[in-house]
Amino acid sequence: MYDLLKGLTVVEGSAFIAGPTCGLYLAQLGAEVIRFDNIGGGPDFRRWPLSPNGSSLYWEGLNKGKKSVALDLSRPEGREIAQRLAAAPGADAGLFVTNFPVEGFLSYEKLKALRDDLICVRVMGWADGGPGVDYTINSAIGVPLMTGHPDDPRPVNHVLPAWDLLTGAFAAFNMVAALLARMRTGQGREIRIPLSDVAAATLANMGMTAEILAGGGERPRQGNTLFGAFGRDFVTRDGKRLMVVAITPRQWTGLIQVLGVGAEVAALEAVRGVDFSKDEGVRFAHVDALMPIFEAGFARADSTDLLPRFDELGVCWGPYQTLEQALEDPRLFKGNPIFSDLAQVSGATYPVPGYAATLPQDDRGDARPAARLGEHTEEVLGDLLRLDGAEIARLHDAGIVASA
């Protein structure tokens, strides 16, 4: 946790991954993020994975450090409170992130009527307002048909929801950018961020659409071979599978030296009239002949001998390991200072990450657990909306709001 955004109040009305990720990042940078949900929990409140007692580990992971308000959003008065929270007063408030539809009770027009300089960041599926999630956008953009081995025509869905995660980070960036603009001009705005546009722009930014438009055709499946460079998984004599990538000249020469395949590589360069030492693209163009050389080199050596020398000479490599094994890796989890042991709302205590970036000049605060659903209902209604105790009690009695 850091304090760069301390003093800001962000209200979140969202579910699933992209919107909550936006709120999570803002909270980890010090903003007070208030999430409102339906009484009993929204559509992501019980998503897998679950703890042994049935609580959602997913929900408590994406909502660390946020305050929680529970409302009956099916009733007009509950919706009115949600609107007032989104458009809360104050120079450092009026900041709202949501994935509710463009039209409806949380439309920009309705919220702007309550606060003219409101900033609303709206996560969407498709830009035309159609429903879409990461996996349906991903299938439509073509990535699963590029993924997998050449001898298997089935599409391969990635287990990591990349478009959701990119969109969440992009939404947080847009929120801060819009706030900076409001501080200069006094103007609020709505920012719509569809997953479909994030996916399309990302592939275009990486040259993948231009590749087709320039006549390169559909990119064939490469299996585990890195496109446009030298990289793939290899198996050592002692059965260790490693992912090895040689992009820079130093990585390439170090890999050749450790494996002792310099003579074979030089002979191939002479036969084909190329130089592999400087251009990763040339290496990729000749992987058909290079891979057998390196496969044999790995098969002759044990990982215990290779890996210290890889590190010494700057070879880029990574082990293949399960997530359970990765939890013991000090570079990732065990002993990593971004993690701290926390008791979460599920009742489980386990290492929880704070902000993923490190700011060497700032003190890193401890990560904060997720709230119980509705834990801050009374506090937020009193402090942010200035409702008195009698009014809050009336809302409780009427079932419009609920506490933890």
Description of the structure:
The chain has 404 residues and is α/β, with parallel strands linked by helices. The protein folds into two domains: 9-203 and 335-402, Crotonobetainyl-coa:carnitine coa-transferase, domain 1 (Rossmann fold), CATH 3.40.50; 230-320, 2-Layer Sandwich (formyl-coa transferase, domain 3), CATH 3.30.1540. It has helices at residues 18-28, 57-62, 76-86, 108-114, 134-141, 143-146, 162-185, 195-205, 208-216, 249-259, 262-272, 280-285, 287-299, 303-313, 323-326, 377-383, 389-397, and strands spanning 9-13, 32-38, 67-71, 95-98, 119-124, 189-194, 230-235, 241-246, 316-319, 339-343, 349-353, 401-402. The strands form three sheets. The chain has a seven-stranded mixed beta sheet with strand order 6-5-4-1-2-3-12, with helices on both faces. The chain has a three-stranded antiparallel beta sheet with strand order 7-8-9. Strand 7 and strand 8 form a beta hairpin. The protein starts with 8 loop residues before the first strand and ends with a strand. The mean pLDDT is 97.
Write the layout of secondary structure elements.
Blueprint: E1 9-13, H1 18-28, E2 32-38, H2 57-62, E3 67-71, H3 76-86, E4 95-98, H4 108-114, E5 119-124, H5 134-141, H6 143-146, H7 162-185, E6 189-194, H8 195-205, H9 208-216, E7 230-235, E8 241-246, H10 249-259, H11 262-272, H12 280-285, H13 287-299, H14 303-313, E9 316-319, H15 323-326, E10 339-343, E11 349-353, H16 377-383, H17 389-397, E12 401-402
Parallel strand pairs: 1-2, 1-4, 2-3, 4-5, 5-6
Antiparallel strand pairs: 3-12, 7-8, 8-9, 10-11
